[in-house]
Design a protein that fits this description.
- Keywords: Acyltransferase, Endoplasmic reticulum, Lipid metabolism, Membrane, Pyridoxal phosphate, Sphingolipid metabolism, Transferase, Transmembrane, Transmembrane helix.
- It is built from 19 helices and 16 strands.
- The protein has helices at 2-12, 18-23, 54-79, 107-111, 173-185, 200-213, 224-235, 250-259, 271-284, 313-322, 345-349, 378-387, 389-393, 399-413, 420-441, 462-474, 504-515, 524-533, 539-545, and strands at residues 30-31, 47-48, 131-138, 147-158, 217-221, 241-245, 262-266, 296-301, 326-330, 358-362, 372-376, 448-449, 454-460, 477-478, 480-482, 492-497.
- The strands form four sheets. A seven-stranded mixed beta sheet has the order 5-11-10-9-8-6-7, sandwiched between helices. Strands 1-2-12 form a three-stranded antiparallel beta sheet, with no helix packed on it.
- β6 (241-245), α8 and β7 form a beta-alpha-beta unit.
- α14 packs across α15 (420-441).
Amino acid sequence: YFLNVLFECDRFKYKHNSSQLLKHPYTLKDVYAASYNSRLYSRPFIEYFEETPMMVAVLTYMGYGILTIFGYLRDFLRHWKIERCHIAREKEEQKDFVPLYQDFENFYTRNLYMRIRDNWNRPICSVPGAKMDLMERATYDYNWTFEYTGRVVQDVINLGSYNYLGFAENTGPCADSAAEVTMKYGVGVASTRQEIGNLDRHEEMEKQVARFLGVESAMAFGMGFATNSMNIPALVGKGCLILSDELNHASLVLGARLSGSTIRVFKHNNMQSLEKLLREAIVHGQPRTRRPWKKILIVVEGIYSMEGSIVRLPEVIALKKRYRAYLYLDEAHSIGALGPRGRGVVDYFGLDPCDVDVMMGTFTKSFGAAGGYIAGKRELIEYLRSHSHSAVYATSMSPPVVEQIITSMKCIMGEDGTTIGSERVQQLAENTVYFRKRLREMGFIIYGNNDSPVVPLMLYMPAKIGAFGREMLKRNIGVVVVGFPATPIIESRARFCISAGHSKNMLDQEERGAITNSLPVAGLFEWCWLLLASLFIPVSQQCNDL
């Protein structure tokens, strides 16, 4: 950690001088700053991904190495009953059975994850708005179990929920409409859409979604994850090729695997890598037989939820047309959160929705509801209605959830007679730019596109993951911290999700909370304090304060 402190202080000296910054060996790197095909963009497309410094990477690996050594030591103590073991195991009488729990697979969970488990699964007892209330928990067995203390931590600034436009609320037109529909239709439908679970509100919602996206037709599903995992197998199968971005969501990966198609992965947002795979697919065809692929499906996301990056959609569409492939676009995080009208990444780039063959998105984020949708040509939707497992076997969406979607979408489109929706879209864009700018000014390393409301702040070392989340909560700020295996082992991070409901004061309070030192220090104590503080906050701002 001392070496990390020295590196950060050295890096900070170059922060305010851009000419020196670009010459420094450990400085900011603009990945794909120059477009592969710049004429397709109306403005510069720049995303920031600073490479992990070698010194930090080595220290991070050392940290995981030490944790692993102590993990094996604790497993040894557990084996000889010296330390109590809480992990899931087969019963003694089942020891000759095929193992149900793989011991080594559980190693990371019991020895690393459990040490910082208190940073996740925190129960909230309020609306997940700009501020929320948390139920306080205590543990007396090192995070294996938790007990509620009865105390409620109130007015915690919520920087973890996907409530981009602030429609997840218990007051206002959306809540009132959902309550009214609940009184008329009830909560559950107790049937599938193909049987007797197809309500008039479902039909209206799907027409509303199609109008919102500017496509011919759309259909909705009760679960966002299943929208991907159950519909991709209905679209492609054996003899088809899926070209998937390396950072695609788990639901896309699962759907691709379930389809039985051949899967090839291209580098994240790298058009050279994608075009190389497309060329090879056209030239070589299927393995062994060399027959042409039945279909080639490119699968990408609008906003990547761990990186904060935006898909290079104009270039993807150009490649898709050139090589006659199909495009599947997952707009789970981008719909409602991008574009001047909140219509997603297609609106953000000013493209034609008809150029995207399969438009997918979720209602769980910008619309404050639940479920997902598939949109596109009418023939595509009619095919999925009879071939998708999610459409045929899943229970219909709950009526109040449907009404929440309809009302919030009308607000965004301005069909409610107000400007609430457009104002929230604009406010989210302003909050995003402001928050990212302020974090960079403070010396933090953040990833992604300037217009992305998903803001990853790099922590790197394993000790920082738990400490950062705990220290932020002490300052009444709720954040999401993420580490391996959700991210590369040397790229642990905190992920902020910005909302239109956040005020500038809230964002400033979060920024101050990330860098506030609670004790005055001087002389030799300055370095001692930096050494300890490096466990949970980037050091560049500490150097500035000192």
